[in-house]
Every structure is written in structure tokens, then in C-alpha cells.
Design goal:
Keywords: Methyltransferase, S-adenosyl-L-methionine, Transferase. InterPro entries: COMT-like (IPR016461), COMT_C (IPR001077), COMT_dimerisation (IPR012967), SAM-dependent_MTases_sf (IPR029063), WH-like_DNA-bd_sf (IPR036388), WH_DNA-bd_sf (IPR036390). GO terms for molecular function: O-methyltransferase activity; protein dimerization activity; S-adenosylmethionine-dependent methyltransferase activity. It holds the Pfam family Methyltransf_2. By secondary structure, this protein is α/β, with parallel strands linked by helices. It has two domains: 95 residues, Arc Repressor Mutant, subunit A, CATH 1.10.10; 240 residues, Vaccinia Virus protein VP39 (Rossmann fold, 3-Layer(aba) Sandwich). The protein is built from 15 helices and nine strands. The protein has a seven-stranded mixed β-sheet, with helices on both faces. The chain has a two-stranded antiparallel sheet with strand order 1-2. A hairpin with a 5-residue loop joins β8 and β9. α6 crosses α10 and α9 crosses α10. It is globular.
Length: 345
């Protein structure tokens, strides 16, 4: 009986797994975390209802959404000294406040924007086209976003959001492991709006930093005196530098393309003391599952569906580095789903 109950519960959980994602999206669209953050203290249901910027708000509908968000442990429901039930932020929902530098709100919205693609997951097993291409009439992921300015802004905001989550851990990891000691110049390849480059420039002011991406991408990067913007194509050439830095770039590509990119990086790296610094997921960086295991596996599936890329184990990374002609590498785990990988020519 107990075994049957657990089996049923497991399947029911997965049947309604989508509810969590869409309820999370709803919370972001309604700005629930933003409202609570701006208010500065817990709020009752009626207070929240009156603060949501909609022509009309059903308190019953809002209550049911909030009940599920509390179940997800994204928000907390407490009873104050007057017996009033009030909702408050948790450490998790603070990561949904849009005006905070460190937030995942835009990344959530991008994932749900792409949701139709998952209906074509079996195309990944067939292997002739990606699920994204199957869903969008043969148009690949990069071309799709390049042609749609609204979607491209969503993608850019999501990448900025994602990078904001790792910058603190990245900086601390680099300082602790002395990864950027003695470095004179660094180019953030595929750096989108330059979030990582700006963080590095701030905490390592002696390093001359630049962000390098496709011209239409870097055109949207905010101006920053400490970070030069360079438009180009990493498959053609990368400007000379001491360190080529790449965050969440190689996971977008298959092995053959990764080797091509890594070879271009090697050509750009200074002969004396130069290296590539890669911030990407290492699937087996810990010997046993931990809090980030599910996120890493989820990102791996995202790569399979959207771009035909992949997250890699240490063995798979080693194979790529060897094929690209590098002499060695060192992995430094950080408090993020990614790790820092130093790769030496």
C-alpha cells in the first residue's frame, strides 16, 4: 500500500510539474516579489490585491496563486500578533525582485517564452534537427532571436539575469584561487551586455577588460569606461589578450564547434602566462548529488532542446581541451551551478 501510494504520488508530481513553472511566471508578471520588497514588510491578501497593477483583481484567484507559491516555499505566510495572515519574501523570492542586480526574473521569463519547443523534445532523439528547429520551421535558435528585436531583448535580459547570479561567486573564486593574479588584459568572449566583464573590472581594476560578441549584441551593452566593447565573430578571430574569458558559451555548441572556438581562443592568448578561463557547468564536479544537481540536469536538457549544445562532465571537457591542443586544465568549484575552468595552452 505504501509503495503504491509513493508511486502514484511520484507520477502525479510529474504530471503537474508544469504548474510550478507557470505559477512562478505569474508571480513575476504580477510583480508580487517587487511589491513586497518595496513595501518593506509583510502584507495581507487585500493589501497585495490593491497593489497589483491590474484593472481588477480577484482575491480568490490571487489567494490560490499565493497558496501554491507558499507551497513552493517561494513566499512565506505568517500570522502576526493581531491574528492577521500576511505574506512575506523568502531568500528565494528575493531573487525575483526585478530591480535588484542579482535576480533571475528575466531568465524565468525566457524559459517560459520557449516552452512550446519542449513539445518537440522527441526530435532530439531522432537527431536530424533540434527541437527548437522542429518547432520553428527550421529556423535555428540564434537566427530566430537575431531577427526578432523583442525576443532578442528578452534573451539579452535573461543572459544578464543569469550572469548576475554567478558574478559574486566568480569574483570570490578568482580571488581565493588567485586565478587572475598578474593578468594584464581580459576579453569576455560571448559576453553579451558585459555583466561579467564589468564585475571583473570592478574587483580587479588593474586588468584591462573588454567584452566581445556579435555586433548587434554588444551594441546593446551599456557604456562603461572600464570595459571596451568589441564586435566580431569568435569563429573567425578573437583579439589578442592575456586571458580569454567565456561564461556559458561553450555549452551552446556541439563538440566540433567547441574545438574550433577553443583553437581561436588559443590563437588569441598571450604566449607568456596566457590562458582561457571558462565558467561553465561541470556535471560531475561533486562526487555526490547536491542542491545544484537538478539545475545542472535541467540546463543540460535546455541545451539539448534549444541549441543542440550540452553540459559536460570533466572527462568530456578534458577531451575537448586535448583536441584543441591545450596542455592542461584546472577546475575550481564555486557557489553556483557553474565552475571555473582554467585552460592552459
Amino acid at each position: 500500500m505504501e509503495e503504491d501510494m509513493k508511486a502514484q504520488a511520484q507520477v502525479w508530481k510529474h504530471i503537474y510539474g508544469f504548474v510550478e513553472s507557470f505559477t512562478l511566471k505569474c508571480a513575476i508578471e504580477l510583480g508580487i516579489a517587487d511589491i513586497l520588497y518595496e513595501h518593506g514588510q509583510p502584507m495581507t491578501l487585500s493589501e497585495l490585491a490593491s497593489s497589483i497593477p491590474l484593472p481588477s483583481v480577484s482575491q480568490d484567484g490571487l489567494y490560490r496563486v499565493l497558496r501554491y507559491l507558499v507551497h513552493m516555499k517561494l513566499f512565506d505566510l505568517q500570522v502576526d500578533s493581531d491574528g492577521l495572515k500576511k505574506y512575506r519574501l523568502t531568500p528565494a523570492s528575493k531573487l525575483l525582485v526585478k530591480n535588484q542586480e542579482k535576480n533571475l526574473a528575466s531568465f524565468v521569463l525566457l524559459q517560459l517564452y520557449e516552452i512550446d519547443t519542449w513539445n518537440h523534445l522527441s526530435a532530439a532523439v531522432e537527431g536530424t534537427v533540434t527541437p527548437w528547429e522542429k518547432c520553428h520551421g527550421g529556423v535555428d535558435y540564434i537566427e530566430y532571436f537575431k531577427k526578432d528585436s523583442v525576443a532578442n531583448q528578452l534573451l539579452s535580459d535573461a543572459m544578464t539575469s543569469h550572469t548576475s547570479m554567478v558574478t559574486d561567486a566568480l569574483v570570490k573564486g578568482c580571488k581565493k584561487a588567485h586565478i587572475l593574479d598578474g593578468v594584464g588584459s581580459l576579453i569576455d568572449v560571448g559576453g553579451c551586455t558585459g555583466v561579467a566583464a564589468r564585475a571583473i573590472a570592478k574587483w580587479f581594476p588593474s586588468i584591462k577588460c573588454a567584452v566581445f560578441d556579435l555586433p548587434h549584441v554588444v551594441a546593446n551593452a551599456p557604456e562603461c569606461p572600464e570595459v571596451t566593447r568589441i564586435g566580431g565573430d569568435m569563429f573567425v578571430s578573437i583579439p589578442k589578450t592575456d586571458v580569454v574569458f567565456m561564461k556559458s558559451v561553450l555549452h551552446d555548441w556541439g563538440d566540433e564547434d567547441c574545438v574550433k572556438i577553443l583553437k581561436k581562443c588559443k590563437e588569441a592568448i598571450s604566449e607568456k602566462g596566457g590562458k582561457a578561463v571558462i565558467v561553465d557547468i561541470v556535471m560531475d564536479v561533486e562526487s555526490s548529488p547536491n542542491e545544484f544537481t537538478g539545475a545542472r540536469l535541467g540546463m543540460e536538457m535546455d541545451m539539448l532542446v534549444a541549441v543542440g549544445g550540452k553540459e559536460r562532465s570533466e572527462k568530456e571537457w578534458h577531451k575537448l581541451f586535448k583536441e584543441a591542443g591545450y596542455s592542461g586544465y584546472k577546475i575550481t568549484p564555486i557557489v553556483a551551478i557553474e565552475s571555473i575552468i582554467e585552460v592552459f595552452p
